[in-house]
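Sequence in, structure out.
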Amino acid sequence: MQDISSKIQEKILISNNFDFDELALEVFRFQYKHNSIYRQYVDYLNINATSVDNILDIPFLPIEFFKTHQVVSTSSEINKVFESSGTTSDSTSKHFISDLSLYETSFETCFKQFYGDINDWIILALLPSYLERNNSSLVYMVDHLIKKTNNENSGFYLHNLTALQQKLAQLLQATQKQKILLIGVTFALLDFAEQFPMKLSDVVIMETGGMKGRRKELLREEVHEILKNSFNVSSIHSEYGMTELLSQAYSDGNGIFRAPSWMKCLKRDIYNPLHTDNSSGRGALNIIDLANINSCAFIATQDMVNLHEEASFEIIGRINHADIRGCNLLI
């Protein structure tokens, strides 16, 4: 039998035309066998793994387990640990990675699926650099994509907003135009918008994460309205990802996200967390991320979701008492 990790990587590269449900069930059986934490959780729920024949019946591991256990489905050597930001060292989630190439395949293919060839882009990041935050999966991804652009104008600008303003002005005046992506955590984009409002109608502006205690929390709609007015753009893009996932979803406006073909978003009943369905409506967000083959592909998050038709969704908040998450910049 083909190694299942290689099989997942092959399917990601194809990025469509495969039976997601069949592969997800195969991953479930594999992880029940090889992931001791997940197996104990499934057994604790008194679920007979051999009787699970529908993805809606697969148990989803509460995301909090990534804070308290080493969630792995492989005996291979761990060569990278991604860690979420947190207020204390013992409250962070850790994702133990044995195969970075699978993560790179996932985010490169996903970016191409939604935005085209990376070589056509200049990426400007309002994020900490890789040297400052090398345990962040988001920073690792953006650093890798910046290098893949093969463009000397791409780079990190978190600590020098003046340089970013000058770089944008230079690029927008150039005779040979390239696509420009400005990606940043929400509070950093708001800081830039306040200090340097400018016309960026030819730039894709993408926010990821939130305020992380650095500014007053705002609704996504309020943030987007401020940024649209400050930069004279019609829409604000968004990236949805987290430490515990190796795939991302993207929105090209209005906070409506779409996931790549190897990632599926479902909803669970907040009053009956073992009940999962894929119909339109609101609930707590469950995610199947097949790129998580070496950890756990079935994650019960703390986010609230509104599922739409045609596999799109929006994040509408957090379950009460859920922790603030994301790329914390308290460096």
